[in-house]
Give the backbone structure.
Amino acid sequence: MKKVLIVDDIKNIRNLLTTCLEVEDYRVVAVNDGVQALQTIQNESFDLIFMDIKLPELSGTEVLRRIRKMGISTPVVIMTAFATVKNAIECTKLGAVAYLQKPFTAEKVRHVLREIMGENEDSGFYNRQAKELILSGKIDDAYVQLKKALAIEPDCGETYSLIASIYEAQGNNQKAERFHKIARQFED
């Protein structure tokens, strides 16, 4: 299980991120200021760090600068409500891998995780996204994800089955049956 450090002085942000990351199977450690962050990073290793720029006692930028001087190369996602070009350039030079603008949603956190961890590469990822979208009634968005899955793996039976379920939900039984037949061909 991958381990993530969250550094933010706002309890609601720490709670939101903790929930999002735990759902994605990360073990989470959360602290509320830069001094605690440095102490924690010195005592434990992490696969990823989410860090606010504006922190009490020691800024996120300064924490990032210090951990890089210590030779710690853990990927860092910078969070801020006050994004400026100067901050972005400074943090990027220090090796920040992504910027997360506050306020953010759980979906935005998942998107950043996928980008950083390189999880966009298989059809299963897009099929999982499509399933979630189908369940929430976002059929058109689900179809877009399924087209991406087919572009990666055109012989995946699950993808064709999901397309069939979309057509069934739309009442187009003829197209649904066509895609079910295609799915069965790849399941053998």
Summary: The chain has a mean pLDDT of 87. Strands lie at 2-7, 26-31, 48-52, 76-80, 96-101.
